[in-house]
Amino acid sequence: MIYHRVALRSFFFTAALLFTGCGEMPHLDNTTSSADSFVYRGHNFGENRNVDYQQGVKDGCRTSDGDYTKNHTLFKKENDYRAGWEHGRMHCKGTGE
After folding, report:
1. Using an 8 Å Cβ cutoff, are 57 and 40 in contact?
2. 1 lies in a domain?
3. C-beta separation of 38 from 32 below 8 A
């Protein structure tokens, strides 16, 4: 009986965790844009993005096109560049511009 209860709780906990990660990231919404938004290749990467983030997006997009481009120093030291590179690589895939 106790095993059944623990197993059931584990199942629901795991299901809850899985379903909470299924939504879109709001700052990457392509339908809204403001004057401070960083839009690249038709994707809105959010507002008030600094130079490191923007360069990371551009390098990540180039990488997704098959031309591996990454500033390894910035990737290791700058969280904004790293986040931009990862977002660019993920969201530019297949755009080929």
Report:
1. yes
2. no
3. no
Residue 57 lies in a domain: yes
Decide if 81 is inside a domain. Answer: yes
In 8-71, DSSP assigns E strands to 37-40, 43-47
Which structure tokens are listed for 65? 């096109």
Residue, of 26 and 67, whose pLDDT is higher: 67
The b/e string for 37-73 (b: 16+ C-beta within 10 A; e otherwise) is ebebeebbbbeebeebbbbbbbbbbbbbbeeebbeee
Q: What is the pLDDT of residue 50?
A: 94
For the cut 60, the answer to whether the pLDDT of residue 37 exceeds it is yes
Q: Would you state the structure tokens that stand for residue 6, as one six-digit string? A: 């623990």
How far apart CA 46 and CA 36 sit, in angstroms, is: 8
Among 18, 33, 17, 77, smallest CA distance to 52 is for 77
- Domain boundaries, position 65: 27-91
Alpha carbon distance 76, 63 (integer Å): 17
